[in-house]
Amino acid sequence: GAAAMIIQTTDVNFGLLSEPEQDAIIYAYAGLLNSLNFPIQILVRSQRKDISHYLNLLKTQAEKQTNPLHQEQIHEYRQFVESLVKDSNILDKKFYIVIPFSTLELGIGKATTSALNNLRPNKKIARKLPFPKTYILQRALTNLEPKRDHLTRQFNRIGLKTRQLTTQELVELFFNIYNPDSFGTKLTDSPEYTQPLVQPALAAVAPAKEAVTPPTHLPPWSAI
Q: Cα(82)–Cα(168) distance, rounded to whole angstroms?
């Protein structure tokens, strides 16, 4: 019955700023922390830089060139960029802020009972949400949107831009977290999902193979 909203922020090269600019950012960041009356999680992810799109663009431009000299120069430049990224292992950093919505915010009595039932070892008891999913998501939306707007204003004071992740971006983010070897993999071009793409694989006995279900629509935050 819990939920979380994930927003992504831009970055700033702190080391290149002058001392007064650094002091201004430190004070603005301190103001952001002091303004919080709710918990947040700051997540920094480092991944190998994906330049496949840029390399494909260079290849396309080389094919369009009518001058053989220009075509050869673009081809050599493409090889140089590809080898540079491969040998130097260039990393791309992304920054996320996670705003949680606790089950207890739905009402401590029923939410606590539901949480305790879900922790019981008896597997015959079905795991149930404390309230209908649509109600939980509506309450989460009402609770999380003002917090998101507050963080957006505070980050703007630091010079950082924020945006809430879309459904497809959330699915790809979690897919890449749980599948680190799938570098640069695109799941689908469709912006809509209806069911989780990955089901739990941990079981005492290997389960029988089941038919793959098409994805179900999920709102732009992760519901647990």
A: 28
